[in-house]
Amino acid sequence: MKLTRAPAERRSPPPPLEANDQVVIWVGTAAWAVALVVLLIIRDSLPAGQRWWIWTCVCGVAFGIFASWYVPRLKRGRARAAADSGGRDQSAPRDSGSNTVSPTETPGSSTRS
């Protein structure tokens, strides 16, 4: 008598959700800025060993500002590259022309069983 269940059929995963990148970036940056202001207000009551949180918030704000500049340029560059490739699949493996064998492969053997 088997007590295990037969494997259930897997449903296809849902499509990825799209978000407005600028809104996400600015909300995160604003959250770091609010945390920075709160920490600067209570700075004197923070133990000396916990003041690094202030610099963590400064870095969060700085990275958020950088991301608001960088992400649109990244997306434009990717769109331009996709348009230049003519819709070819960018994830397809490329033949480098090398005939070397990786240390985990044995020539003539298959990894399938």
Taking the sheet with the most strands, its summary is: none
Helix content: 40-55%
State the distance separating the first and last CA atoms. Answer: 28 Å
- Return the string of H and E elements: HH
Outline type: flat
Mean pLDDT: 84
C-alpha Rg, in Å?
A: 25 Å
Secondary structure: number of strands:
0
What structural category characterises the helix and strand content?
mainly alpha
Number of helices: 2
Q: How much of the residues is beta strand, in percent?
A: under 5%
- Which residues form runs of ≥5 with pLDDT under 50? none
Record keyword descriptors for this entry.
113 residues; mainly alpha; flat
Explain this structure.
The chain contains two helices and no strands. It has helices at residues 21-41, 52-84. Helix 1 (21-41) runs antiparallel to helix 2. The mean pLDDT is 84.
